Amino acid sequence: MGEEIPKIIIGRLPLYLRVLRRLKNEGEVYASSQELGEMLDISGAQIRKDLSHFGELGKRGTGYEIEFLIEKIRQILNINQVWNIAVVGIGDVGHALARYNGFVNRGFKVTAIFDSNEKKVGTEVQGLVIRDIKDLKEVIHKEDIKIAAVATPASAAQSVTDSLVENGIKAILNYAPIYLKVPDDVLVEYIDPAIHLQKLSYYLG
Amino acid sequence: MGEEIPKIIIGRLPLYLRVLRRLKNEGEVYASSQELGEMLDISGAQIRKDLSHFGELGKRGTGYEIEFLIEKIRQILNINQVWNIAVVGIGDVGHALARYNGFVNRGFKVTAIFDSNEKKVGTEVQGLVIRDIKDLKEVIHKEDIKIAAVATPASAAQSVTDSLVENGIKAILNYAPIYLKVPDDVLVEYIDPAIHLQKLSYYLG
DNA sequence: TAGATTGTTAATCGATTAACAATC
DNA sequence: TAGATTGTTAATCGATTAACAATC
Questions:
Q1: Contact state of A189 with B178 under an 8 Å Cβ cutoff
Q2: What is the model's pTM?
Q3: B186 CB-to-strand D distance under 7 Å
Q4: Phi, psi at residue B112, to the nearest 5°?
Q5: Which CATH fold topology does B7-76 show?
Q6: pLDDT band with cut points at 50, 70 and 90 for residue A97
Q7: pLDDT tens, A58-77?
Q8: What residues pair up with B172 in beta bridges, in sequence order?
Q9: What topology is assigned to A83-192 in CATH?
Q10: Residues of chain A contacting residue B108, judged by C-beta atoms under 8 Å apart
């Protein structure tokens, strides 16, 4: 129970959740590891192994009860609650994030948006007022925000990150095309479309 | 030489490229594997091992010549050319992609944008006219497009993908929150902010 | 009971790290 | 030459897969 779960397994749980939700929507009640594996292009053995870290979640001979497994994974990932998210930098990407409806029911809600441009501050996006980046401290504490998305230009990303960390942010989704320096107890995930495309072009010869 | 390079190594090359470019901008001429490793939070040994797959690219006692290594990695990744990109689905995400300037100088250029909404078709984004999705075939061939980004709603993503594949697209950057079924010779990379956030929230207890 | 599928062990496979001779 | 750092081998570590007894 107390064992450390490998990061790579945690990384697959959200994918399991996504296909389980789809199956549930389609009216399915049970799913076997093989069935799930085929939908994700991974082996059934791997899915069983991954899930076994969290207890005996399936029924021999039957498979996994979808509704139960969804609830279980939501618990494991701590998304049986809604996390408030701050978005910093309301350019195209920040704007898209603020309006993104893929967060609904997946555990997250953008509740604060920031920019440093005086012309943007005070205007609204999706019913949220863009706040001045100077108000970071106040808003983060008031809204009890622990996760932030950095969508500023690369030049501003590190200093914005430093402010976020200083104000208690523990996890960052970084869209700026640089590696962010953060303390060991702060987590960062990177999203950079150019990086993803560069992986693809290798194989296009 | 003829050996297959592990996918995980190819995945790191774009990151190496990014820090090398940064060092070059800062006026540096040489970088050691340890220095690069510290900037990326990986070991120098791993960087040396990765690069050794492509020849003897460094100088013992000195490190790697930055400009040379950048050029070499660009060659390996096939981004010493510009790939035309099609973006399908011009909602917030598609719009952000069309206007994204992080592609410049990194090997890619959005040259065609598509939507199925008649009200959007014909309007311009970043100097590009939104084309009807029915014109996929014509435009893809005319512009010699091999890579596409899918930024449609989940419900349309698979059928759009099928059309793309039918028309010769070999690599897809998928923003729709579903797993896409494609033939073995077509590559897909996935970007889903909710999935990334779910990985983070696990660690927030 | 017969059939199906889990949970788990052991075997395999692959990636990372440590260490150091080669060499700039 | 002395110092530094690569390229590479061997050792270690970790992840995936195969196989099957347990059991629903």
A1: no
A2: 0.94
A3: no
A4: -150, 135
A5: Arc Repressor Mutant, subunit A (1.10.10)
A6: very high
A7: 999 999 999 999 999 999 99
A8: B148, B188
A9: Rossmann fold (3.40.50)
A10: 194, 197, 201
